[in-house]
Design brief:
Elements lengths: L8 H11 L2 H15 L5 H8 L4 H10 L8 H21 L2
């Protein structure tokens, strides 16, 4: 799908001067806002913006001050992995 928006020339010039590609900046803003509001998943944002890796997505979200969705299950899994790693480290280093 192709979407066209109209901006006053002076605003488009400000965006272009500050950050280059106006279309890319608008698309990023749309994708970030849609992610923030739960309308798009991280995977969908990567598709929209053609980001290669999850690290690219995380960097974009960090620059925008948006934190990725983190479920209770992910937290529990990370906690358990950390606990096991700590226990293994303590056994290996008496």
């Amino acid at each position: 799908m192709e979407v066209t928006i109209e901006l006053p020339d002076e605003i488009a010039d400000q965006i272009r001067n500050a950050s280059g590609d106006v279309a890319r900046r608008v698309l990023e803003a749309f994708a970030i806002d849609s992610y923030r509001s739960g309308k798009l998943t991280g995977w969908q944002v990567r598709q929209v913006l053609r980001l290669q890796t999850r690290f690219d997505l995380d960097a974009l979200l960090k620059r925008a001050g948006v934190f990725r969705e983190y479920t209770a299950e992910e937290l529990e899994r990370d906690y358990e992995a950390s606990r096991q790693a700590s226990a293994e480290h303590l056994r290996a280093c008496p």
